[in-house]
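tool_call: predict_structure(chain=1)
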Amino acid sequence: MTLKERYSGIVSWFLENVPVAQSELVFSDPYQLIVSVVLSAQCTDKRVNMVTPELFRRYPTPAALGAAPVEDILELIRSVSYPNSKARHLQALGRKLCEVFGGEVPGQVEQLMTLPGVGRKTANVVASIIFDEPVIAVDTHVYRISHRLGLSRGKTPYDVERDLEKHIAPEHRATAHHWLILHGRYVCTARSPKCGECGLTPWCAYFAKNAKG
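tool_result:
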């Protein structure tokens, strides 16, 4: 099977079987999304969704977040992973959004990456979801699934991102990010992939090598 055939089969399967795929984070505007994605680093969306309602009630704008004491932010997000550093990042994020971007979340990946706590993955998530940029965010799920399926051999998330964007049409990239994340969370799990429940086995490199027997 060629790489082109593998991509074609997998994308076609997702288009037919999972035509709608969206973030599981709960948000209502770009500010809430970027804060939620910063909090979601090495943390589940479910946990983030538990802490953000009160966080956004207390700090509904970048200005309010930037003016909040770090200790108060920390108290609200204590149950997420790495709360101390994330509290500092969120305060600084709120301030920079106001000081540099007029209180608005910028739409370009390069601008987003200048914000505290925002790496390439977070920037790509926000750019694709809010601004329809044809980019693919690579988190741990996307990285793992891309290797298992045989879509990429990239050694870094950026390598995987470039491979995926090379072979997935721009109009499908934003959805493809969610396809791969959700597939990794619920079917192709890290420790025990559920190959018996997976519709991608005809194109999956892992299945061809390990699971047939």
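agent: The chain has two domains: 3-22+135-211, 30-131. Proceeding to next step.
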